[in-house]
Amino acid sequence: MVSRFIRAVRLGLVVLWASPWTLLGILVGLIGGATGGRMQRVGRVLEFHGGAISWLLSRVPIAGGASAMTLGHSVLGRTVADLDRTRAHELVHVAQYERWGLFFIPAYLGCSAWLWLRGKDPYWDNPFEREAYAREEDGCN
């Protein structure tokens, strides 16, 4: 009973720690919903797809845009198929938000800028992405 309570408190804290970015993701998701998109819940993650979200993700500055993007405990995807295909990868980012909280985006962008200044790829060499791709390949969530 006590360990269950402790797990619930811990979950509440990590959700709260990531909540500023989650709220931004929900706002973008609601805009997507107002433009024809849809939402679903998978575990403790809200997934949004379609509508303006597809347009937005197609313009992310990586080759061909992004299939999906995580903001806290919300994941934005172009389509349901994209969400299904990228779920393991995006769940690693959810765990990263749980560790880094409000500091995740500044840390991610700071790593990307540092890599770019050193002549490396700001996306593929980013340690946050490398962890997500490594865990995805291992089949871990």
On the 0 to 100 scale, the average pLDDT is 93
Count helical runs. Answer: 5
Which descriptor suits the 3D outline?
Answer: globular
Task: Report the strand count.
Answer: 4
Main sheet: strand order: 1-2-4-3
Tell me the major beta sheet.
4 strands, mixed
The proportion of residues forming helix, as a percent range, comes to 55-70%
SSE run = HEEHEEHHH
Radius of gyration: 15 Å
Q: Tell me what portion of residues adopts beta-strand conformation.
A: 5-15%
Structural class: alpha+beta
Uncertain spans:
none
- Separation, N- and C-terminal Cα atoms: 26 Å
Count of separate structural domains? 1
Short summary:
With 141 residues, the chain is α+β, with helices and mostly antiparallel strands. Helix content is 61%, strand content 13%. Helix 1 crosses helix 3 and helix 3 crosses helix 5.
Structure overview:
A 4-stranded mixed β-sheet has the order 1-2-4-3, with helices on both faces. The protein has one domain (18-138). Helix content is 61%, strand content 13%. The protein has helices at 2-34, 52-57, 80-100, 104-117, 127-138, and strands spanning 38-42, 45-49, 68-71, 74-77. The protein is globular and about 50 Å long. Helix 1 crosses helix 3 and helix 3 (80-100) packs across helix 5. By secondary structure, the protein is an alpha+beta fold. The protein is built from 5 helices and 4 strands, in the order αββαββααα. It starts with a helix and ends with a helix.
